[in-house]
């Protein structure tokens, strides 16, 4: 056990000792999904008022719609969510590099075999240079996709890690 897993175990024991929500259904009660970034400064439940069991929260680096498509289809088609709220954020790490930089870092840190694997996968890290434009691009991507039904409301937002405020972009 590392210090972090020790902490996890202790905090979970505390949490489970007063846990009373084991009866919740699998499909989210409020039938919506939030796609946001994995950034450690975002607390979706607290910042966006999500109670346990209410919504799917899909997270990845940059709140990428493309990267999240698999989960979005599962959420909507298998678990009946009917609205998509996409929230990127200020200060996102995805604004700070380009694909070639990530490829170079992997090559330096992990060496040739890892570098080759990355190239074989043609992995796109999906960085973006402009936050608001990226929100618009991802919303367009979702609206263009035939995997997202036309009657599903889709909105794009920016969360400010400096203020805790969220604002709508599209
Ligand atoms: Zn981010």
TrEMBL record:
Known cofactor(s): Zn(2+)
UniProt catalytic activity: hydrogencarbonate + H(+) = CO2 + H2O
Claim: Kinase is one of the keywords in the record: no
Cofactor: binding comment: Binds 1 zinc ion per subunit.
Keyword Lyase: yes
Cross-referenced SMART domains: Pro_CA (SM00947)
GO MF terms held by the record: carbonate dehydratase activity; zinc ion binding
SUPFAM superfamilies from the UniProt entry: beta-carbonic anhydrase, cab
Keywords: Lyase, Metal-binding, Zinc
Binding site for Zn(2+): 37, 39, 89, 92
Domain of life: Eukaryota
EC numbers, comma separated: 4.2.1.1
Record-stated family: Belongs to the beta-class carbonic anhydrase family.
Function: Reversible hydration of carbon dioxide.
This protein's name: Carbonic anhydrase
